[in-house]
Amino acid sequence: MSGKLNKERYRSSVARLHEIFSGISKTVTDVSQWRCPYKNVEDRCTANFGCRNQDRSVPEGELYPCTGSDDLDYRPAWEE
């Protein structure tokens, strides 16, 4: 294998990575408009603070289930 950099292949790879990460970023932006940022994929709360949507009736050490509605717009909580 040659030690030379194939500039066109490099540019193509970077463009493909940009395309992939742009798609991920768009999905994150879309989801952040309707889903609490502290709710994980298992609908458990990962916040390190109290929230009225935490169901605290679980054994110590477990993440609290989130009882919040995904119909809420959480953006005002962190937007100015």
Mean pLDDT: 84
Strand content: under 5%
The secondary-structure class comes to: mainly alpha
Overall number of domains? 1
Q: What's the number of extended β-strand segments?
A: 0
Count of alpha and pi helical runs: 1
Q: Which outline best applies?
A: elongated
Q: List low-pLDDT spans.
A: none
**Gyration radius over CA:** 20 Å
**Cα-to-Cα separation, first versus last residue:** 53 Å
Percent range of helical residues: 25-40%
Largest sheet: none
Order of helices and strands: H
How would you sum up this structure, described in words?
By secondary structure, the chain is an all-alpha fold. Helices cover 31% and strands 0% of the residues. The protein is built from 1 helix and no strands. It has one domain (7-77). The protein is elongated, with a radius of gyration of 20 Å.
Helices, strands, pairings?
Blueprint: H1 7-31
Summarize the structure.
The model has no long low-confidence stretch (mean pLDDT 84). The protein has one helix at 7-31.
Keywords summarizing the entry:
80 residues; 1 helix; mainly alpha; elongated; 31% helix
